[in-house]
Amino acid sequence: MDVRAAVAFQAGKPLSIETVQLQGPRAGEVLVEIKATGVCHTDAFTLSGADPEGLFPAILGHEGAGVVVEVGPGVKSVKPGDHVIPLYTPECRECEYCLNPKTNLCQAIRPTQGRGVMPDGSSRFSINGEMIHHYMGTSTFANYTVLPEIAVAKIREDAPFDKVCYIGCGVTTGIGAVIYTAKVEPGSKVVVFGLGGIGLNVIQGARMAGADMIVGVDINPAKRELAERFGMTHFVNPREVEGDLVPYLVDITKGGADYSFECVGNSTLMRQALECAHKGWGTSVIIGVAGAGEEISTRPFQLVTGRNWRGSAFGGARGRTDVPKIVDWYMEGKINIDDLITHVMPLERINDAFDLMHEGKSIRSVITF
Ligand code: NAD
Ligand code: AHE
Ligand code: ZN
């Protein structure tokens, strides 16, 4: 079938709106009509050329919501008409990883996701006979996409697509990193580096977890007001701090953060986030994605003296199990998504969404089809 998609033909170039061809679902796959998709910084990261797994041409996008229109042979868990959120972290419930409660990183289809193809090794997308790569196994910058059955979470039908699409990445990543990965306790002191689409959800998660002090660190002062509305208690602009940022943060938290989160993708900030964590027990969680060739470093003494350094992908959430619950939280008014969606636009204007992100003018832009 013909579908409308934003195609990334080349790194560093704007997306191009095209009519592309999409083959129907094969065994274990589903065809989903995408109704809305968010634009995450990771899409911009891959488009920039900094992603070692970036492949071109590709249909990017991994923060969608839509309706199942057709299922391939053997599909049992969803049917046409079901409302779903695509999962770039699938949940097969059978692999060694899914069976281990310590991780959410289902590996059932990870190798083919990284090669931009479906689990059988081929792509369903093409343009004029030329293959187009899938992206993160989701490719939501198209009005129809094909996904493995294990990579869709069935959600309630009264949830608005143009809001809950954000649960497909940013909301779950930020809130989940607090609740599932770090397991922040009531009364904690939390420091959040980066107050964008992820960091504000970390703040919202920290408030839900009952943190007492939530420090937000960002070089863009325009992020302050919204972050305060979401629960930030103290704002730090590193450009206004005299001297080193780490001792400043240790000082205002009276010894260091119980939990810190890096939500930018900058390896210098990752080090600062680790080093502002409390001696003896502080945990620092890396969420930001750093470019090819980047490495992190610190003095081993920082870890010897009891700080913990770890990372979180998709907030430690198991998509088919946890995403429907997070949709319920939204529908019950327990989490705020609406105020983080600052821009809504049609697919034809998707490049504006990238510009707004780079200019620091948006939190989340959502594309509606
Ligand atoms: P965003 O562009 O919305 O926000 C980034 C924020 O960082 C902005 O507010 C910006 O002002 C701030 N910032 C930039 N440089 C800074 C600096 N030197 N010091 C302090 N603040 C600085 O991006 P986002 O969508 O929130 O994504 C954030 C990061 O998280 C990206 O690297 C993205 O790829 C990554 N991410 C990871 C996961 C995961 O599962 N681990 C999921 C989603 C996104
Ligand atoms: N392809 C990159 C890594 C990108 C990355 O870390 N992706 C996160 C999700 S970001 C969503 O906005 C993730 O889930 N990682 C776990 C995984 O298996 O990809 C690279 O460096 O190669
Ligand atoms: Zn994302």
UniProtKB/TrEMBL annotation:
Name of this chain's protein: S-(hydroxymethyl)glutathione dehydrogenase
Record family assignment: Belongs to the zinc-containing alcohol dehydrogenase family. Class-III subfamily.
A Pfam family matched in the record: ADH_N
Keyword check for NAD: yes
Its EC number(s): 1.1.1.284
UniProt feature coiled coil, ranges: none
Annotated organism of origin: Thermithiobacillus plumbiphilus
Catalytic activity reported: S-(hydroxymethyl)glutathione + NADP(+) = S-formylglutathione + NADPH + H(+); a primary alcohol + NAD(+) = an aldehyde + NADH + H(+); S-(hydroxymethyl)glutathione + NAD(+) = S-formylglutathione + NADH + H(+); S-nitrosoglutathione + NADH + H(+) = S-(hydroxysulfenamide)glutathione + NAD(+)
Obligatory cofactor(s): Zn(2+)
Family matches, as InterPro entries: ADH-like_C (IPR013149), ADH-like_N (IPR013154), ADH_3 (IPR014183), ADH_Zn_CS (IPR002328), ER (IPR020843), GroES-like_sf (IPR011032), NAD(P)-bd_dom_sf (IPR036291)
Top enzyme class: oxidoreductase
Key words, A-Z: Metal-binding, NAD, Oxidoreductase, Zinc
